[in-house]
Amino acid sequence: MHNKRIGFLSFGHWARVPGSLVPSAGEAIKQGIELAVAAEELGIDGAFFRVHHFARQQASPFPLLAAIAARTSRIEMGTGVIDMRYENPLYMAEEAAATDLISDGRLQLGVSRGSPEPALNGAANFGYVPDEGEDTGDMARRHTALFRKAIAGHGVAQADPHYAGGATGLLPIQPLSPGLPRRIWWGAGTRKTAVWAAEQGMNLMSSTLLTEDTGVPFDQLQAEQIQMFREAWAAAGHDFEPRVSVSRSILPIVDEVDNRYFGLRAQADRQDQVGILDGALSRFGKSYIGEPDALAEELAADAAVQAADTVLLTVPNQLGVEYNAKLLGNVAKYIAPAFGWARQTPESRQTPESRQSA
Q1: CA–CA separation, 187 vs 185, rounded Å?
Q2: Tens digit of pLDDT for each residue in 230-252?
Q3: Number of H helices, E strands in the chain
Q4: Quick one: pLDDT at residue 130?
Q5: Is the pTM here over 0.85, yes or no?
């Protein structure tokens, strides 16, 4: 398995309120680009963005990801996650392939059914409703299957010989980007959906909550999810190595500014929480807030962090680029080496598919 990677995950919030350095949508997008550039300079491996409709967050990720691709040369860029209920699979396939070509194969797309949202039935307003016998989760999976078929180069539209140079049969979308089908991740909220993702041949993206609870600590439940995913992957016999990411809120306190922002949260947020989300009993992972040495020790003992190959650090994006670049730098310097991360060399940056084709 390749070396452990760290990336940031921005929820992309903006609001014109006291304390926010991101007052508008334009600032949220531009600061997302600048933070990705700064993160690459720090040696961070990934820049990921949450996608959420009908909210003051990123809703249309591909312009942002393409701009990051054009401004950087090494860092991965991706989503956590695209709500596939809302997506036209073929148009998304064209956008994803074009963005991946700009990045020279650095796109990592997290997709899923999505999370609870402000709109009562937002996907229907975009023109997408479940087929007979489906629910919205089934529809998201159907959209995902067609999207993956399209980016893999399978024919999806009947040719018109009069305008297709005499071609008959099914035409694939264009452009295509080799390797992209192996860089699709499913955002799984349960052990069952993680097993399903493995059977389908998608990488696993697991966040700071699981929509189930067995009474064990969050990191242990998530580690069990990862183990079940890996076992199902091996049983399915896929011909490439999967990747697994987990998200963590890691807020080292190294100066008075950090303490002012997060000191009071250090006790309240440093334990798991259990509650009802979207009708299901759910377990929410704790935040890691405090002195860097203590956080390094705790994260080195986090079972899911150890089981994953990629750790996504949720960032308080409304505090601005300068603060978040400092936060990422402190995690990279003081904490991440304790759980297995090292700044990557050109050789260690190779993806599983690039190594297999070398």
Answers
A1: 6
A2: 999 999 999 999 999 999 999 99
A3: 13, 15
A4: 97
A5: yes
Of 210, 209, 189, 185, residue with least CA distance to 198: 185
For 78, the enclosing helix (H) or strand (E) is strand 76-83
* Rounded Cα–Cα distance for residues 110 and 279 (Å): 23
Q: What mean pLDDT comes out for the span 291-313?
A: 97
Q: Give the closest residue to 314 by CA, choosing from 292, 289, 290.
A: 289
For residues 244 and 228, give the distance between their C-alpha atoms in angstroms, rounded to a whole number: 12
Stretch (H or E) spanning 236: helix 218-236
Q: Which helix (H) or strand (E) holds 306?
A: helix 303-307
Q: Is the pLDDT of residue 111 over 60?
A: yes
One-character DSSP codes across 321-338:
HHHHHHHHHHIIIIIGGG
Question: Given a cut of 80, is residue 200 above it in pLDDT?
Answer: yes
Contacts by 348-357 with C-beta closer than 8 Å and gap 24+?
Answer: 348/2, 348/3, 349/45, 349/74, 350/2, 351/2, 351/105, 351/179, 351/183, 352/2, 352/182, 352/240, 352/241, 352/243, 353/179, 353/182, 353/240, 354/105, 354/179, 355/2, 356/240
Reading the block at residue 303, the tokens are 């079972």
What's the rounded Cα separation, in Å, for the pair 301 and 324? Answer: 25
What pLDDT, on the 0 to 100 scale, is given for residue 208? 80
**In terms of C-beta distances under 8 Å and separation of at least 24 residues, what long-range contacts does 231-234 make, across chains too?**
231/198, 232/194, 232/195, 232/198, 232/199, 233/198
Which helix or strand (DSSP H or E) is residue 199 part of? helix 191-200
Crossing angle for the helix pair 89-103 and 61-71, to the nearest 10 degrees: 10
**CA dihedral in degrees (167, 171, 173, 179; nearest 10)?**
-100
Give the span between the Cα atoms of 230 and 73, in whole angstroms: 31
Distance from the Cα of residue 174 to its chain's centroid: 25
Say if residue 357's pLDDT is above 50: no
